[in-house]
């Protein structure tokens, strides 16, 4: 039992009635005075020499003023504890005392009584202190969870809806720069510190003065991309939608194209088959926009667009003429009937056998330099201010569709900031720094996030621990879809289950590591940062082709409010994302799972006909190292009783860099460099191996496949070496301390 040593004249109000008794205090004072007087008598020096362990009796007044609890297991034994535990202690004293002194017995009795009184007082003080103070055994995780819930309970769907409507109205009266300034002002008013506007001058490919057109050569009929006949009336009716139905960074010009031409083609008509769309989505007559830009400013590939940088004037990123068109126009070009259902099943759009169609494409776009703006705000951490949790979304992008989903994203991130700052104003702060980012230029290839990432690359490589995406939180209303890095899937699964009100009726957890089309791209593919994104989707969309997310349809405010009239889905996304943000920003040990990465690698090699024995052997060794790392380092670090701050910092540094080993140098166009992410949620194999295998089947050489196998092999080996080196470092540190 832990207790406290006190002098009898030192009261501890509120702890015990015994310490407030005047008679007991007077007796103790008298005994102590007599004891000190006797200690001054000749002959007592011999006791001090023979019993060196009691040398602090001379300084009992100063020593006994310490009211801190004593832990017998770790602290030196107090003198009163020794009187209890060592039976020969008093005997040793009596043997050392001069026999000629007639008052030896009295002195011993006084000392013993004083010791007993103070010992009992210490027990009482310790008991009441332990009773009135919070127990050290209380789980910090329980306290943190309560804190997170206190923060998140202030988030309400109605408030998000009001913010959304205000942003939509703001767009109608302000331009892109003014919107960014208004968002900065709002974030600052909420209490967020150090909010910045970061501008970059970048090369944008914009629509021309007139919309693109497609003409059927056989009849001479001219159509706009939405399928409407070319006319001045149709152009005025939906001028913006027609202008922004284009492929950014496509080649310009006029081209005659055969729909049956197999090789040497110079143009592409992009469309989305209605059979691939959700039943709730009627987009047959809708046009859309795509960007052919893989990411960042095309004029500064691989480096930031800052003043003085060399600029490449690239008016197009492909020699092909590319034009998105509606499904209704495709049906007209290939002369298909309007009703294409067979026994209730949807029939895909296909050109009849042995038939040919020749069309003329006309595309006009303009390339010029424009300014894109990022809004970046910081909430500094108190324990690890140099470690960043980035929360990213996008604001309105000028020169693109009048889409309203940016207002949805901005309202969600602002709602979380508001809830967080209410707690910060009461004195709380996260352990790690949270960085809130609204990116500009997203529609043209995630330009704002790429330029900021390239600008601060060295800092971000070292400091970013996770990226939480709030991009387009509500795209449907039938299914919660979670995308997470393998190391974060366990955490995401826990949050999904915790936030399900009826555990017995919870839907199957839909979590995957699949490619996503948003501003997380740079952080996943160039920095290897673990990432999480929650969205509501339509089930049919999830089952459809992955390229659907690349098509930017004009989505108006009324459509978003139809999907989520009370903004309850927005509220759920905000709270789910918020809890993940808080846990990553505040837990002493990052909530990443090393073993899940190794298991994901093994699962990606199962059933793959390209897998080699070397790959399987390396994957097995990776799992062994990850298991050892998980048990020997992760388990002790998560136990507060065994936690060592130096080792925790080393451990977190290892955890945040685990995915960097899986960044390959060369990936096929459209594929992630981070091979832990699959092309879509329907495949579990490494996407670059599947693509190389398909490519190999059509060629005589298997060189492409061998290169892909080498990339995967080197990635797995690098990860295994990384874990092994980490274990060796921890072992050497432990040996050094011992």
Automatic annotation (TrEMBL):
Membrane topology: Single-pass type II membrane protein
Keywords: Membrane, Signal-anchor, Transmembrane, Transmembrane helix
Subcellular localization(s) per the UniProt record: Membrane
Domain Peptidase M28 per the UniProt entry, residue ranges: 374-536
Short name of one Pfam family: Peptidase_M28
Region feature (Disordered): 1-21, 60-82
Gene3D superfamilies linked: 3.50.30.30, Transferrin receptor-like, dimerisation domain (1.20.930.40), Zn peptidases (3.40.630.10)
Main location: membrane
GO cellular component, as recorded: membrane
Membrane spanning residue stretches: 108-128
SUPFAM superfamilies from the UniProt entry: PA domain (SSF52025), Transferrin receptor-like dimerisation domain (SSF47672), Zn-dependent exopeptidases (SSF53187)
InterPro entries per UniProt: PA_dom_sf, Peptidase_M28, Peptidase_M28B, TFR-like_dimer_dom_sf
Family statement: Belongs to the peptidase M28 family. M28B subfamily.
Name of the protein in its database record: N-acetylated alpha-linked acidic dipeptidase like 2
Species annotation: Bos mutus grunniens (Wild yak)
């Amino acid at each position: 039992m832990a207790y406290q040593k006190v002098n009898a004249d030192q009261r501890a109000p509120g702890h015990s009635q015994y310490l407030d008794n005047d008679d007991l205090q007077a007796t103790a004072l008298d005994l102590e005075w007599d004891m000190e007087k006797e200690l001054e008598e000749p002959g007592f020096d011999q006791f001090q020499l023979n019993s060196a362990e009691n040398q602090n009796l001379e300084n009992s007044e100063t020593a006994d003023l310490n009211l801190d609890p004593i832990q017998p297991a770790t602290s030196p034994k107090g003198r009163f504890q020794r009187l209890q535990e060592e039976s020969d202690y008093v005997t040793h004293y009596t043997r050392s005392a001069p026999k000629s002194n007639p008052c030896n017995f009295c002195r011993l009795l006084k000392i013993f009584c004083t010791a007993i009184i103070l010992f009992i007082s210490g027990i009482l003080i310790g008991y009441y202190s332990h009773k009135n103070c919070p127990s050290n055994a209380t789980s910090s995780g329980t306290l943190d969870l309560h804190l997170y819930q206190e923060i998140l309970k202030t988030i309400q769907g109605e408030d998000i809806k009001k913010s959304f409507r205000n942003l939509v109205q703001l767009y109608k009266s302000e331009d892109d720069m003014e919107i960014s300034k208004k968002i900065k002002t709002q974030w600052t008013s909420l209490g967020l510190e150090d909010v910045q506007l970061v501008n970059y001058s970048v090369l944008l490919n914009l629509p021309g003065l007139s919309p693109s057109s497609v003409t059927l050569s056989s009849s001479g009929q001219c159509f706009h991309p939405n399928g409407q006949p070319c006319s001045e009336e149709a152009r005025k009716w939906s001028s913006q939608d027609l202008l922004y139905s284009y492929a950014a960074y496509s080649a310009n010009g006029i081209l005659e194209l055969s729909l049956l031409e197999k090789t040497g083609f110079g143009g592409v008509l992009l469309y989305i088959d209605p059979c691939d769309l959700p039943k709730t989505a009627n987009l047959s007559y809708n046009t859309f926009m795509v960007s052919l830009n893989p990411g960042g400013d095309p004029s500064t590939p691989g480096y930031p667009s800052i003043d003085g940088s060399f600029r490449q004037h690239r008016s197009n990123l492909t020699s092909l003429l590319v034009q998105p068109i509606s499904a209704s126009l495709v049906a007209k070009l290939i002369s298909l009937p309007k009703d294409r259902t067979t026994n209730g099943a949807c029939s895909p759009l296909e050109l009849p056998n042995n038939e040919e169609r020749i069309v003329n494409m006309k595309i006009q776009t303009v390339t010029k330099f424009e300014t894109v703006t990022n809004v970046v705000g910081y909430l500094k951490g108190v324990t690890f201010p140099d470690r960043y949790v980035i929360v990213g979304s996008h604001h309105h992008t000028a020169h693109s569709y009048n889409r309203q989903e940016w207002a949805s994203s901005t309202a969600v991130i602002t709602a979380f900031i508001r809830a967080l700052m209410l707690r910060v104003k009461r004195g709380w702060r996260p352990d790690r720094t949270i960085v809130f980012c609204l990116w500009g230029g997203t529609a043209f290839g995630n330009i704002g996030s790429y330029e900021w990432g390239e600008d601060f690359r060295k800092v971000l490589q070292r400091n970013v621990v996770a990226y939480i995406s709030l991009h387009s939180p509500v795209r449907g209303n039938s299914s919660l879809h979670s995308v997470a890095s393998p190391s974060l899937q366990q955490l995401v699964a826990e949050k999904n289950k915790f936030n399900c009100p009826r555990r017995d009726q919870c839907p199957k957890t839909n979590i995957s590591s699949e490619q996503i089309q948003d501003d997380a791209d740079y952080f996943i593919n160039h920095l290897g940062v673990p990432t999480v994104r929650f969205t509501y989707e339509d089930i049919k969309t999830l089952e459809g082709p992955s390229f659907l997310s690349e098509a930017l349809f004009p989505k108006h405010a009324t459509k978003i409010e139809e999907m989520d009239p009370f903004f309850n889905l927005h509220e759920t996304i905000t709270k789910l994302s918020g809890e993940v943000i808080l846990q990553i920003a505040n837990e002493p040990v990052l909530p990443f799972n090393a073993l899940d990465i190794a298991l994901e690698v093994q699962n990606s090699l199962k059933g793959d006909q390209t897998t080699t024995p070397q790959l399987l052997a390396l994957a097995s060794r990776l799992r062994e190292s990850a298991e050892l790392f998980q048990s020997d380092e992760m388990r002790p670090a998560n136990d507060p009783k065994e936690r060592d701050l130096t080792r925790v910092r080393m451990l977190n540094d290892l955890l945040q860099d685990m995915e960097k080993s899986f960044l390959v140098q060369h990936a096929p166009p459209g594929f992630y460099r981070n091979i832990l992410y699959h092309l879509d949620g329907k495949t579990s194999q490494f996407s670059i191996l599947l693509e190389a295998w398909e490519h190999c089947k059509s060629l005589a050489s298997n060189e492409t496949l061998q290169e892909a196998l080498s990339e995967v092999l080197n990635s797995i080996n690098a990860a295994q070496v990384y874990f092994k080196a980490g274990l060796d470092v921890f072992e050497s540190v432990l040996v050094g301390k011992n």
